[in-house]
Amino acid sequence: LLVAFACDPARGSEYGQGWRFAEAAAEAGNDVWVLTYAGQAASVTAHLAAHPNPAIRLVPVAHRFERARHVAGATRTTIAEQVHYYVWQVAAIRTARRLHREVGFDLVHHITFGKYWAPSAGAFVGAPFVLGPVGGGESAPLRFWPAFSLYGLVYEAARSVGRRLAHADPLVRHGARRSALALGSTVETVRALARLGARRTLAQPSIGLTDAEVERLGALPAPPPGPLRVLMSGRLLHWKGFDIGLRAVAAAGLPGVRVDILGEGPERARLGALAARLGLADRVTFHGLVPRDAALAILADASVLLHPSLHDSGGFVTLEALAAGRAVVALDLGGPGVQLTPACGVAVAAHSPDQATADIASTLRRLAADPAERARLGAGGKARIDAALRVRHVAARALAAYADIAPMPEPPPADRPAGASEQTSSDGASVPLSHVGLAGRSR
């Protein structure tokens, strides 16, 4: 049973990851039930109609509050989304437990949201439980807080308080303690899971690209010659660090440099004013939200992706830039810091805003003066994706971990009824998995 609140074949980010993991689990030879938010049911059903997969069964859940107000497909943001997610997980417990009584799952795996500090319905089923990869253990270093807007300061303070409250939440603690394996997408999250009581933890990247995405991104032409063109992409939020990026570009003093910014968000006006104060108004283009083809065209013109995020657990944009063969410069924090190696990018230390700005500026000057170095990093990025950062790599690592949770039992005797499986014993103790992740399906 996959607990995948976010699961939509037609979307990117975590929503796409939820569906891709379900497909990967099915391809590995498992029968997969997907417990997901009812707001995505229509998209998943349409996809399955066009691409039938008998190994995947969809189980949509919408809690009663939503059904009464007919908002099952509503779009939520920030705090409203987080509250809705928490309520949904609690509401889904009943459905998950009923399913386990009917099916007898060998294993329950929480996939999305990838947030360690919220409960998961999967922890209350009674079958062996895998949590993650989840993130959220990362924090913006305190020295960066004075540069935040008032909204940013309130957000970071609320996030810090929310995590502290979560560590005292019995539902959250139950999930960590009940897990047979807890996967964290960053070192910070692994430490947080251990503090919550997870007995066995492992650090693993939480995101990857599909083969189709890698093929499309890899087909983009090489960056055009000429002055450095810097791309920053993502929601315009204080913790994305776009202000650090703009200050670094100004400090680099590169002739002819251009900056493209993709995305929208509450920091848009503040960033525009900063670009003007830095004398970059005629060199920075705010594109807003653009269609996928337009975004790829802008990426094709970029020499470097600059991603100075302060607490990203994953970072899809860095993966896409690596797959496109672009040099990547990011802060050595969270997921992007884990994704990058010296062969494919530059992970800049983040001790203080002034230090980070100066070091990014120095890196941009070096890359602007050395096209061969940019090409080397671009080739290294493609190799990095091919070696470790495709969806199938992420899924394979998690699926491989299933076998280590408990010893694999012997195949059932010939007279055992078809479809029978091991379940949790009457005293609540977990018993071994049965053939999860092997070539043959468990049922």
Describe this structure in words.
With 443 residues, this protein is of the alpha/beta class. It has helices spanning 13-27, 41-50, 64-69, 78-103, 150-168, 170-178, 187-196, 211-218, 242-252, 268-277, 292-301, 316-323, 334-339, 353-369, 371-388, 391-405; strands spanning 2-4, 32-37, 56-61, 108-112, 129-134, 181-184, 201-203, 229-233, 258-262, 284-288, 304-307, 327-331, 345-348. Helix 1 (13-27) packs across helix 16 (391-405) and helix 9 (242-252) crosses helix 14 (353-369). The longest helix has 26 residues, at 78-103. The chain is globular. Residues 67-75 and 407-443 have low confidence and may be disordered.
In short:
By secondary structure, the chain is α/β, with parallel strands linked by helices. Helices cover 45% and strands 14% of the residues. The strands form two sheets. Strands 3-2-1-4-5-6-7 form a seven-stranded parallel beta sheet, with helices on both faces. A six-stranded parallel beta sheet has the order 10-9-8-11-12-13, with helices on both faces.
What is the mean predicted local confidence, pLDDT? Answer: 86
Low-confidence segments, given as residue ranges, are 67-75, 407-443
Summarize the helix and strand pattern as letters.
Answer: EHEHEHHEEHHEHEHEHEHEHEHEHEHHH
Main sheet overview: 7 strands, parallel
What is the number of helices? 16
Beta strand count: 13
- What share of the residues does DSSP label as strand, in percent? 5-15%
Q: Label the structural class.
A: alpha/beta
